[in-house]
Design goal:
By secondary structure, the protein is of the alpha/beta class. The chain has helices spanning 56-62, 75-78, 100-103, 119-131, 194-206, 229-242, 256-268, 277-285, 327-332, 349-352, 373-385, 400-410; strands at 5-10, 19-24, 27-31, 93-94, 115-118, 141-144, 150-152, 155-162, 169-176, 179-183, 211-215, 247-251, 272-275, 303-305, 337-340, 359-363, 388-391, 415-418, 441-443. Helices cover 25% and strands 20% of the residues. The strands form 3 sheets. A 7-stranded mixed sheet has the order 6-5-4-3-2-1-19. Strands 7-8-9-10-11-18 form a 6-stranded mixed sheet, with helices on one face. The protein is globular. The two termini are 15 Å apart.
Length: 451
Amino acid sequence: MPGPTIQFLGGVREIGGNKILIEDGPDRILFDFGPSFDHRYEEFYLDYLKPRSTSPVRDLLEFDLLPWRSGLYSRDALGGLEERYTAPSIHGIFLSHAHFDHAGYLEYIDPEIPVYLGAGTRTILQAIEASTPTRYGDHPWRTFDGGESIRIGHLEVVPMPVDHSVPHAFGFLVRTREGTIVYTGDFRQHGPRAGRTREFLEAARAEAPAALLIEGTRAGPDPRRNFTEEGVRAGVDRLLATHPGLVLAACYPRDVDRLTTLYRAAADSGRDLIVPFKTAHLLAALAGDPTLDAPVPGRDPNLKVYRRPKKVYYRWERPFLDASVDASWIRSHGRESLLLMDTNQLTELIDLRPPAGTPFVRSMSEPFSEEDLTDRVLRNWIGHFGLGLEQYHASGHCSGPELAEILAAMDPDLVYPIHTEHPEAFDGKARRVVAPERGTVYPLRGLRGPA
């Protein structure tokens, strides 16, 4: 019977796009399945030019934007390639967290393949599907809380919670017949739940892993400041204390820790945090989550919902309408407001007419390159209205020095850097580092390198 192997179908020399296939004999499982953040997609597709809904996998395969694997995709997603459809040969997909670059292509997976994910992650995906056009497909959903053992044939998977910029992120211990593979998912150890990351890393060290698959988003050149969540709070507190009028902010829509930080800063300064409908919907969906202390619409007094003018409001928006506020309310209550804006809400500035010098807090990562179109558009709007751009963000990923310390403490036999554009930054940080190649099969037995 063939020994255990690892194959990287994505997440190689790129940010995001993790698709990791682990096999042990006849048993096959995938970890994550989403698009990457590189620019290859934009070389062929744009907002108005997308893969056809009748053949999305075929269209993405044409430009090598998806890996081919028989027994993985649904018949409908293959579209014009129905003749290449085969019955599922993957026995489960494990999702590390709810970010789009890890979950965004689940819609194309054969609906008979079960998807294993955290119970809280399932709630987040359902909230996203209800409030956006994103779809994840129909699957047998198998939820876990973390720490339990999930056996699929010869493979035993133990999901463990880690800290990240979206709730309910997990790393995994994957026990095979010939040693343990550790997959970190995306993680950090400077956030509100850093203790979870430390517990996972200690459990991973105790396994004496044969291979460590570690994300390295911030490996290599990284000029960004290494804020903690407390550092973000301190910066926002200073800004609210020194600016008596309206303050604007932007953060990632699923960064519940950041939403909580901004809410507490606003409340402690006598202001209301005012959020978009989508954010309100997510916070309401997570209201019963005992692991979070996030604000809830209708319950927390310093939380309001911003109402954009529309002819028709979606069903999921309607519960928030009665207590919502609009641009005219903001103009007359600026001193009492911290207004959260998604990038697609920048047009509201035309109605808000904020005074020149109004602070705009970008509480999200700086752009990866000068070619970032979203950042360019944001700066154009900020410049047009004379706003003051302030940067306060705590990354969802470990810094380069933190990654080096983790490798030194864990001392794995073999390290595969993934989810990074700079795998070479790991050289010399472990006994053996292999920058994986996409599609190459790496056997676990003997650590001999590619098969």
